[in-house]
Specification:
The protein is of the alpha+beta class and 333 residues long. It contains 9 helices and 18 strands. It has 3 domains: 121 residues, no CATH class; 79 residues, PDZ domain (Pdz3 Domain, Roll), CATH 2.30.42.10; 95 residues, Pdz3 Domain (Roll), CATH 2.30.42.10. Strands 10, 11, 12, 13, 14 and 17 form a 6-stranded antiparallel sheet that branches. The chain has a 4-stranded mixed sheet with strand order 2-3-1-4, covered by helices on one side. Strands 7-6-8-9 form a 4-stranded antiparallel sheet. Strand 13 and strand 14 form a beta hairpin. The protein is elongated, with a radius of gyration of 29 Å.
Length: 333
């Protein structure tokens, strides 16, 4: 119910801002507005505002809204008083009519920019631009990047987070040129160039970061919740346990654990977990269950009845007023 109420509220805000765009520009152009309605159907709330006695209504079907303007085409010739005919929508220039029509979507666009800009001002948490070990054969590996390198600059521009790094890297990918990075390694800055010219055409629309070998460094993997009848519960795993190794191999991503468990149905898997500062070895036997993934074609995979949580290093990113507007425009675009 809470989700439904939140959805309807967000929808109402979007509709209101959209129609307010039409309404405001219509008024600015001198067009008389007869009704401003949020929702469809018989009005639940009705009141009039202003010298034009514009009727504002709220109706029960919250799937849209409309702004009704004075228009000779609705009532036919003579339907509009002579002294108001100049305020009819159909009597306006093409430029004014176009502005009124475009104002609705533009208002929503500006709303999105404003909301993102507000987030930028307040500050948001984003993954730090710390890199995983590059896959052999990728451009990142060829450039000498290593696991744990933290990107702090690209092409002379400061980088504070992984999303910002990805966004800045797009310029180099589009221009098919080397991206000049500065990474922090062992507390010292190091300059590195990653060539993007070898990326296949159309890679920008795919996972070009992974193709270049620029993956986010893994963090900690912990047990989020445990089903009472699953293998995890039977083996003694508890919510909050941090998994540090599987079969003796250190891990940094939830997928590292899941991949081993899926391929180990009905076989023992040794998990090394950190519980309250103490490492323990726990043996778990994943239960064989039919996979619901299309690529598995109905085969059985191992599952332990636990939800995993992957936590990576996060940084608080804040923007100044001008940068926040730029950030909002980039995120919206």
């Amino acid at each position: 119910m809470t989700t439904l109420i939140a959805f309807l509220f967000a929808l109402a805000v979007l509709i209101f801002v959209h129609e307010l765009g039409h309404y405001s520009v219509a008024r600015w152009c001198g067009v008389k507005v007869l009704r401003f309605s949020i929702g469809f159907g018989k009005p639940l709330v009705r009141f009039t505002v202003g010298a034009d006695r514009t009727e504002w209504t709220i109706s029960p079907i919250p799937l849209g809204g409309y702004v009704r303007m004075l228009d000779e085409r609705e009532g036919g010739p003579g339907s509009v008083d002579e002294h108001e005919v100049h305020r009819a929508f159909n009597r306006q220039t093409l430029g004014k009519r176009a502005a009124i029509v475009i104002a609705g979507p533009l208002a929503n666009f500006l709303l999105a920019i404003g909301l993102y800009a507000s987030l930028g001002l307040v500050g948001i948490e984003e993954p730090a631009a710390t890199l995983a070990e590059p896959v052999a054969g990728t451009q990142a590996a060829a450039s000498g990047l290593r696991a744990g390198d933290r990107v702090i600059e690209i092409d002379g521009r400061e980088i504070r987070s992984m999303p910002e790094f990805r966004l800045r890297l797009i310029d180099a990918v589009v221009e098919r040129r080397p991206a000049r990075l500065v990474v922090q390694r062992d507390g010292r800055p190091l300059q590195v160039a990653v060539d993007t010219a070898g990326l296949p055409a159309g890679e920008l629309d795919k996972d070009f970061m992974r193709s270049l070998g620029l993956d986010l460094a893994g963090g900690t993997v912990s047990i989020g919740s445990v089903m009472p009848d699953g293998s995890a519960a039977k083996s003694g795993l508890l919510a909050g346990d941090e998994i540090v190794a599987v079969q003796g191999r250190p891990i940094g991503r939830a997928t590292d654990v899941i991949d081993v468990l899926r391929e180990s149905a009905d076989r023992e898997v040794v998990l090394t977990v950190n519980r309250a500062g103490t490492e323990q070895r726990i043996v778990v036997v994943p239960q064989a269950q039919r996979s619901d993934r299309p690529e598995d074609a109905g085969r059985s995979v191992g599952r332990i009845g636990a939800a995993l949580q992957n936590r990576v290093e996060m940084v608080d990113v804040r923007h100044g007023p001008i940068d926040a507007i730029t950030y909002g425009a980039r995120q919206t675009w």
